[in-house]
C-alpha cells in the first residue's frame, strides 16, 4: 500500500524544512553564519538595486520554486539589507520551454548575487527530478501503472526530491526505514526465509505496512501466504514477471487485493511492455539518483 497522504495536493514542501535546507546551503557557500562573499561585497555597493529573472535554459518541469523567495530573504536578513521583491511567474509542476521566465526578482544587487548559486542549486536539482519523472509519467499514461520513487536520494535532500517526484506526476513510496517495512533479499537471507522475515516484522512492529521483495514466482506466492499484500517483483524478465502476476492474481479471490510493483533495471523503452504485464507500480531509482539538473539561470537585467 502507498501512503496517499504523501501524494495529495496538500502535501507541499514544509516551510520550516525549506528554511532549514536554505540556511544550510547558504552556510556552505558563505563559510558559516553570516559568512561573506569576497567577490560581491567589494564590487557591489550596498545601496545598488537590480532586477533579475530566473530563467529556464532548457525545456522541462519546474519544482522547488519555494527556495527562491526563502533564499533571498535569508541573505537580506544575514547582511541587514532591504528585502527582495519576488514574483513567481511559474508554479511547481509546470512544463516550461527554454527561455521561459520562472520568477522576477527586484532588490539589493548584493542579495541577488549572494543568493544566486544557492537557490539555483536547489531549484535546478528539484526541477531535474520533476522533469525525469514527467517522462515516466507520460510513458505510463493510460496503462494503469504508476511510477514510484525510491530511497536512492541525495543525502539531506530527500524531502525536496520526493516532492519533485510528485510535481513530475510520480508517486512517493516510503520516506525512509521508519515508516514502511520492506523485506528484501538480505533480510530473507538473515531471517532464513520470506515467511520468517515477515513474521518477525509483524511481531516487532504490528502497526506498520509490510512489503516484500520477490525474485521468483515461488517467493511471490510464499510472501502472499505469509501475509504480505504488497510485492516488489525484482529484476524479473518479461516471462517471469507475467507468470508472477498471474500467480498472485489467482490468489486474490482468497486473500484479497495484492499490490504489485516491478523494480530493477527499468528503462523508458520497456515501460509500456512492463506495464502490460499487469503491475500496479514501477519503482525507478533513476528518478532521483541519476536525473540531470534542469538548467536554470538567474540573469540580471541591463540598464537598471
From TrEMBL:
Record's keyword terms, sorted: Glycosyltransferase, Pyridine nucleotide biosynthesis, Transferase
GO MF term set: nicotinate-nucleotide diphosphorylase (carboxylating) activity
Keyword Glycosyltransferase recorded: yes
Domain of life: Bacteria
Catalytic activity of the protein: nicotinate beta-D-ribonucleotide + CO2 + diphosphate = quinolinate + 5-phospho-alpha-D-ribose 1-diphosphate + 2 H(+)
Pathways involved: Cofactor biosynthesis; NAD(+) biosynthesis; nicotinate D-ribonucleotide from quinolinate: step 1/1
Domain spans labelled Quinolinate phosphoribosyl transferase C-terminal: 129-299
GO BP annotations listed: NAD+ biosynthetic process; quinolinate catabolic process
Domain Quinolinate phosphoribosyl transferase N-terminal: 37-127
Entry GO terms, CC: cytoplasm
Segment forming the signal sequence: none
Catalytic EC class: transferase
EC code: 2.4.2.19
Pfam families, A to Z: QRPTase_C, QRPTase_N
NCBIfam families documented for this protein: nadC
Similarity field: Belongs to the NadC/ModD family.
Function: Involved in the catabolism of quinolinic acid (QA).
Entry protein name: Nicotinate-nucleotide pyrophosphorylase [carboxylating]
Organism: Sanguibacter suaedae
Name of the gene: nadC
Amino acid at each position: 500500500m502507498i501512503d496517499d497522504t504523501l501524494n495529495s495536493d496538500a502535501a507541499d514542501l514544509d516551510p520550516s524544512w525549506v528554511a532549514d535546507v536554505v540556511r544550510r546551503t547558504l552556510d556552505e557557500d558563505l563559510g558559516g553564519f553570516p559568512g561573506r562573499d569576497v567577490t560581491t561585497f567589494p564590487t557591489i555597493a550596498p545601496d545598488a538595486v537590480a532586477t533579475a529573472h530566473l530563467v529556464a535554459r532548457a525545456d522541462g518541469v519546474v519544482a522547488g520554486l519555494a527556495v527562491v523567495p526563502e533564499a533571498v530573504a535569508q541573505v537580506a536578513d544575514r547582511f541587514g539589507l532591504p528585502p527582495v521583491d519576488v514574483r513567481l511567474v511559474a508554479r511547481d509542476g509546470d512544463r516550461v520551454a527554454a527561455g521561459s521566465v520562472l520568477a522576477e526578482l527586484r532588490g539589493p544587487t548584493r542579495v541577488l548575487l549572494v543568493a544566486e548559486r544557492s537557490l539555483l542549486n536547489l531549484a535546478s536539482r528539484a526541477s531535474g527530478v520533476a522533469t525525469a519523472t514527467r517522462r515516466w509519467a507520460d510513458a505510463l499514461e493510460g496503462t494503469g501503472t504508476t511510477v514510484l520513487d525510491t530511497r536512492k536520494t541525495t543525502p539531506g535532500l530527500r524531502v525536496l526530491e520526493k516532492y519533485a517526484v510528485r510535481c513530475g506526476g510520480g508517486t512517493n513510496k516510503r520516506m525512509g526505514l521508519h515508516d514502511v517495512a520492506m523485506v528484501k533479499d538480505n533480510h530473507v537471507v538473515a531471517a532464513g526465509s520470506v515467511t520468517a522475515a515477515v513474521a518477525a516484522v509483524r511481531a516487532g512492529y504490528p502497526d506498520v505496512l509490510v512489503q516484500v521483495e520477490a525474485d521468483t514466482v515461488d517467493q511471490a506466492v510464499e510472501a502472499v501466504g505469509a501475509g504480505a499484500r504488497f510485492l516488489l517483483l525484482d529484476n524479473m524478465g518479461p516471462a517471469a514477471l507475467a507468470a508472477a502476476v498471474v500467480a498472485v492474481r489467482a490468489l486474490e479471490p482468497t486473500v484479497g487485493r495484492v499490490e504489485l510493483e516491478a523494480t530493477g533495471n527499468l528503462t523508458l523503452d520497456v515501460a509500456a511492455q512492463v506495464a502490460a504485464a499487469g503491475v500496479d507500480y514501477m519503482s525507478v531509482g533513476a528518478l532521483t539518483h541519476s536525473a540531470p539538473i534542469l538548467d536554470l539561470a538567474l540573469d540580471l537585467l541591463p540598464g537598471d
